[in-house]
Each structure stands twice: as structure tokens, then as C-alpha cells.
TrEMBL record:
Lineage, broadest ranks: Bacteria, Bacillati, Actinomycetota, Actinomycetes, Streptosporangiales
InterPro entries cross-referenced by the UniProt entry: Adenosylhomocyst_ase-like_sf, Adenosylhomocysteinase-like, Ado_hCys_hydrolase_NAD-bd, NAD(P)-bd_dom_sf, S-Ado-L-homoCys_hydrolase_CS
Amino-acid positions noted as binding substrate in the UniProt annotation, renumbered to this chain: 52, 124, 179, 183
Binding-site list for NAD(+): 150-152, 184, 213-220, 236, 271, 292-294, 340, 347
Pfam family, one: AdoHcyase_NAD
Cofactor note: Binds 1 NAD(+) per subunit.
GO CC terms in record: cytosol
Function: May play a key role in the regulation of the intracellular concentration of adenosylhomocysteine.
The name this protein goes by in its record: Adenosylhomocysteinase
Pathway: Amino-acid biosynthesis; L-homocysteine biosynthesis; L-homocysteine from S-adenosyl-L-homocysteine: step 1/1
Family assignment from sequence similarity: Belongs to the adenosylhomocysteinase family.
Length: 419
């Protein structure tokens, strides 16, 4: 039983899934391995993730490993209805996702995925895990463990663990190098600007782009915005990250000072109320507001609505124009949700190849290791991270050096020094 918008879209979905798959050689190699080893044989997996062509590659890999998979959407605006249809009608997964569904539909789909009684869970923002711990505690006894792939979700999981609320082990896939270093930096950096350009057709060269947050996502955005000729301003609450931004040549300001000078604002903090009514009140007419943090709480959309005397929805796809009392116009993209997935197609498949390879291998590891793990937030084993990087390099025909026996001895001995 599934809930998708239109079964007739399945053929188009298959074509796009196969296109993405060509850029995911690491995941293909793991899928081939899983078909032989069946590390997930007989297990039920419930996932709450963006329903995109790249995610389809992960779902197919888990199925190849012997799992049955139920997938709910982690964002109503990122759901690709043709992919959802293809996963159900061509690949045999259960999918509960419709593009543009409301909040009630969003949580109904999460509940439907959980009704399958999962052994393992995959989450993107912690909403599925949160629902398990608050509304479906009856299912907790069968869940062995799970993976979380976003910064926001990992933050929420650590909070649960500190309060003693987390009931099963969760692995912070987001924190492994081959995920956050590449997915967050190169994926978010490219796909966010892609979404902004698609939604507005604006020229970024010569613009002042304000980036709130200088973690891996913010760094990637700053690098690419500067490469396109923009002047980049960074806002931060962390002194170390702010110093890093300053030493890389970016202007660092508090948001109160950045608000009047910015042309484009991008939030990537994982926190709420980053851009508030106070900031909106002093922005230039024509300023563009975009969010690439996980949830739609970084830009205070309610404050924007309260300031507006008129709203022109859909002036362009995923762009709403708010007219303020003094005649200024502010443009909000993707309703304040993830602009890279709502207004574009999310990260390139070549980036998600590594992130989803981490997910697949971690699921296989969890299937065996979960009984030995405490109900806490765990790191991805280092050998999984290294294996994914090795496979990716091989797919790019890149060779690297290996340590000699003497070098190995030197690195592992405290007795050797200057000779």
C-alpha cells in the first residue's frame, strides 16, 4: 500500500532515476555487492527522506541487500512525483509522498511508513525518529537502530540523548567526512545557487550575498558565490567560524548590519529566527530571501507576512513577492523551505553518491552491530568512511600513494625522532 500522486508518471521517473544512477558509481558497486551478500535480508527499513532520483538509488541498493523499504517524504516541496511513482510501480518500494502536501499529509505519510514496523530507520531532520518517540512508542521495541543524514537532525538527536529520551542507537551519517565535507560543502554550495538562479534568473555577479552560517554549507556557498563574482558577507555566532571567514577574505558582520546592504540572503544555520522582522524592516527593495537550512524556521515568514500590505504569490516559480507599506518589495523563495530542493533538484548525483554510499554501508553495519550499541548517537565507523572515499577515487581513475613499512613504523613509534 502506497500513497503517490500519479502512477502514470512512473516511466518518466525510471528514465530520470537511470540518468542519476550513471553518476553514482560508488552506490552501484555497493548495490552489486549487496545482491551477493544480502546484508539486510528480511529487514524492514522505514525512511523519511527527500524523494528524488538520487534517493531512489539508495532505496534500490537497500532492496538489493534484501530489505523491504517504506519511504516517506522529508519535505513536501522536494518530492518528485515521477520518482515516487517509479519506486512503487517499477521498483517495488512502498512510498508515501506527494509533492506539495500539507502538514497533515506530511505527518500522515510518516505514520504510514512507520506502520510497516521497521527494524531500521533512516531520517533526514529527525521527524521520523521524533514521531517514533512521541506518538508511536508502541513500535520502539522492534527498532534496532538508524541513521541521520542532516546537521539539524543530528543536533536534535544529541538533545534527545542528553535528556535520556533516545531509545535506540542512531548513527550520525551527516558527521562523516565523505558526507559533510562533500555533500554539505560542494552539494549545498552548488545546488543552492542553482535554485536561486532558477527561481529568479538574477545575475549574481556584482551582488552582495549575505550568508548566515559558516559551517560546511556556508563555506561551500561563499566559495561558489565569490567564484561567480558576488561580494560575500558572512554572519556567524561562533567566533572560530567567524574568524575563519574573515581570514578567507569575507566580510563578517552581525545580521543587523548586513541586512541593509544585502541583495541576496541565504540562511544555512540549522537554527530558527536567523532573519527576523527587525532585519526585514531595513532591507533593500528587491532583496531575495532564501533558506538552505533544513526547516522553514530560519527566515521569520510570519513576520514578513505581517509587514506586507500585499503578497504576489508565484511571480516566478517558487518566488513570492511581498509588498511592504513603504513600497519596498522583498522576494521569498520556496516559502522559506529548502531552496535547493524546492526550486532546483537538490545536490548533483555525483555528490549524493558518497552520502548514500555512507548510508547503505552503515545500514549493513547496523544490522549486525546494533545489539552491541547503547541508545546514543554514534559515529560512522572510520573504515566505512575510508572505503567510500577509496571507491570514489577509483571511479574517478585517481590513484594515491601508500605508506611504506618504514613510514608505518615511524608513524606508530614514539621512539623515532630526528636522526
Amino acid at each position: 500500500m502506497s500513497d503517490v500522486a500519479d502512477a502514470s508518471l512512473a516511466y518518466e521517473g525510471v528514465k530520470r532515476i537511470e540518468w542519476a544512477d550513471r553518476s553514482m558509481p560508488v552506490l552501484r558497486q555497493i548495490r552489486d555487492r549487496f545482491e551477493v551478500d544480502l546484508p539486510l535480508s528480511g529487514l524492514r527499513v522505514a525512511a523519511c527522506m527527500h524523494v528524488t532520483t538520487e534517493t531512489a538509488g539508495l532505496i534500490r541498493t537497500l532492496q538489493a541487500g534484501g530489505a523491504s523499504v517504506a519511504l516517506a517524504a522529508s519535505n513536501p516541496l522536494s518530492t518528485q512525483d515521477d520518482v515516487a511513482a517509479a519506486l512503487v510501480h517499477e521498483y517495488g518500494a512502498q512510498v508515501f509522498a506527494r509533492a506539495g502536501t500539507d502538514r497533515e499529509g506530511y505527518y500522515r505519510h510518516i505514520h504510514q511508513a512507520l506502520e510497516t514496523g521497521p527494524d531500521l530507520v533512516l531520517d533526514d531532520g529527525c521527524d521520523l525518529v521524533n514521531t517514533l518517540h512521541t506518538e508511536r512508542v508502541d513500535l520502539l521495541g522492534t527498532v534496532r537502530g538508524g541513521c541521520e543524514q542532516t546537521t539539524t537532525g543530528v543536533i536534535r538527536l544529541h538533545q534527545m540523548a542528553r535528556e535520556g529520551a533516545l531509545r535506540f542507537p542512531m548513527v550520525a551519517v551527516n558527521d562523516t567526512d565523505t558526507k559533510h565535507m562533500f555533500d554539505n560543502r560542494y552539494g549545498t554550495g552548488q545546488s543552492t545557487l542553482d535554485g536561486i538562479v532558477r527561481a529568479t534568473n538574477t545575475l549574481l555577479a556584482g551582488k552582495t550575498i549575505v550568508i548566515a552560517g559558516f559551517g560546511y554549507c556556508g563555506r561551500g556557498l561563499a566559495e561558489r558565490a565569490r567564484g561567480l563574482g558576488a561580494r560575500v558577507v558572512v554572519t556567524e555566532i561562533d567566533p572560530v567560524k567567524a574568524l575563519d571567514a574573515a581570514l578567507q577574505g569575507y566580510t563578517v558582520l552581525p545580521m543587523s548590519e548586513a541586512a541593509p546592504v544585502g541583495d541576496v540572503f541565504i540562511t544555512v544555520t540549522g537554527n530558527r529566527d536567523v532573519i527576523t522582522g527587525e532585519h526585514l524592516a531595513v532591507m533593500k527593495s528587491g532583496a531575495i530571501l532564501a533558506n538552505s537550512g533544513h526547516f522553514d524556521v530560519e527566515i521569520d515568514v510570519r513576520a514578513l507576512a505581517d509587514l506586507a500590505v500585499a503578497v504576489h504569490p508565484g511571480v516566478r516559480p517558487q518566488a513570492d513577492e511581498y509588498i511592504l507599506a513603504d513600497g519596498r518589495r522583498l522576494v521569498l523563495l520556496a516559502e522559506g523551505r529548502l531552496v535547493n530542493l524546492a526550486a532546483a533538484e537538490g545536490h548533483p548525483a555525483a555528490v549524493m553518491d558518497m552520502s548514500f554510499a555512507d548510508q547503505a554501508l552503515t545500514c549493513a553495519w547496523l544490522a549486525e552491530a546494533a545489539p552491541t550499541l547503547a541508545p546514543a548517537v554514534h559515529e560512522v565507523p572510520k573504515d566505512i568512511d575510508t572505503e567510500v572515499a577509496r571507491l570514489k577515487l577509483a571511479s574517478m581513475s585517481i590513484a594515491i600513494d601508500a605508506l611504506t613499512p618504514d613510514q608505518e613504523e615511524y608513524l606508530h613509534s614514539w621512539r623515532l625522532g630526528t636522526t
